[in-house]
Amino acid sequence: MATLCTISLSALVQAASPAPALGAGPSGCAARPSWIESATTPEEDGNPFESCFSDRSSLAESVLSITNNRPYAQLLTVTGTTLDLAESGFAGSQEAAFSTALANLRPESGPSAFLLGASQSAILAIDRPPPGPAQVVHIVAAPGNAFAVAALAWRLVSAATKRLSLPASTRSCIASAVYGALRGPPHPEGTLERVHACVNGAPLPASRERLLRALAASLLVDRAFKEVIQREGTEPHPARITLTVAPSDPYLANPAIQLQGANIGSIPSGSRSVRHLSATGGLPPYRFYIVPEPGGPAVPSWLHLAADGTLIIEPPLGSVAVNFAVEVVDSNGEHSLVAY
Fold it and tell me: Which of the listed ranges 5-19, 68-82, 194-208 does the model predict with the highest average pLDDT?
């Protein structure tokens, strides 16, 4: 049986904080974590991006350092796991904001997606999954049309941010149009029309609105779209990272393992709340997982528990109460009896 413990909290509104800025290029490279059975990470210069495991990787999470080697933005998708943006970071603050907007759009059945600007880098954190069968994680470039419209949309977002301080609502609207290109048949004309609609609805003074529309008219054009499609189609290597997580036994119970720090209490309004769970018994270090209750409500998207025990609470407007169960696993793969 899994180690479960119920945590209750009352939460008020929270303001998001940007990820810390990072240096360019893969750095602090190290061997892959032992719990990853195999990995394909492109390291040679000819690849669309270079990547390696960071020395920040641990028993609880895999950390990848990657750099975009292309002169245009790359839209990348993650399947087989959910990208942990709360623990990740981007060298560019705008890439971080746009990728956060993409993450907020992800449905339960859809892929995670993030964007890397030209020659930009990122540190991606991927939580180790709970005990169970082997799992394959793919980080790949978006399909061609979605890839190209994302590159064009990013040119617009970058130019507009530098010249007129693009409103966050407009950036989120554009991110929604880009993510929509991943969810259905690729129709680039329709996606670019939705980006134009975001531009036309931007809450800006008249002079800045005219500038934004002029930027959109000059950047969201067929010629630029075809250039990206043609170049991406002739590159010798696809953008791809593959990780295979080794299987582990989910049924090793150890009653001595106990969750600590579960008394969350009330969350102050307007502040980002970060708590750190801990455990005793068994063999540390530990890993922590939220376990959805069968037939119960889904865990809210504004509550995130990293495998290292970092609990980040980003509640919406208003007061809410949430109950959720946490599984604690030690380094032997053992966990304690069910507790509520």
Answer: 194-208
CA distance 122 to 91: 6
Token pair in block for residue 335: 């966990």
Helix intervals (H) in the chain: 93-105, 144-164, 168-183, 188-200, 206-219, 222-234
Outline where DSSP puts E strands in 258-315: 258-260, 265-266, 273-276, 278-280, 287-291, 303-305, 310-313
Phi, psi (degrees; rounded to nearest 5) at 172: -65, -35
What are the angstrom distances between the C-alpha of 100 and each of 105, 115, 194? 9, 10, 19
Task: State phi, psi for 334 to the nearest 5 degrees.
Answer: -95, 155
65 Cβ neighbours under 8 A, 6+ residues apart: 25, 26, 27, 28, 29, 51, 52, 53, 54, 121, 122, 123
In 3D, which of 284, 283, 266 has the Cα closest to residue 275?
266
Q: For tokens 């270090």, what's the residue?
A: 285
Domain ranges of the chain: 6-245
Q: What angle do CA 210, 97, 185 make, to 5 degrees?
A: 80
Statement: the pTM of the whole predicted model exceeds 0.70: yes
Note whether 220 and 157 are within 8 A (CB).
no
The pLDDT-based confidence of 71 (bands split at 50, 70, 90) is: confident
Q: Tell me the CA end-to-end span of the chain in Å, nearest whole number.
A: 13
Q: Are 4 and 329 in contact (CB under 8 A)?
A: no
3-state secondary structure of 232: helix
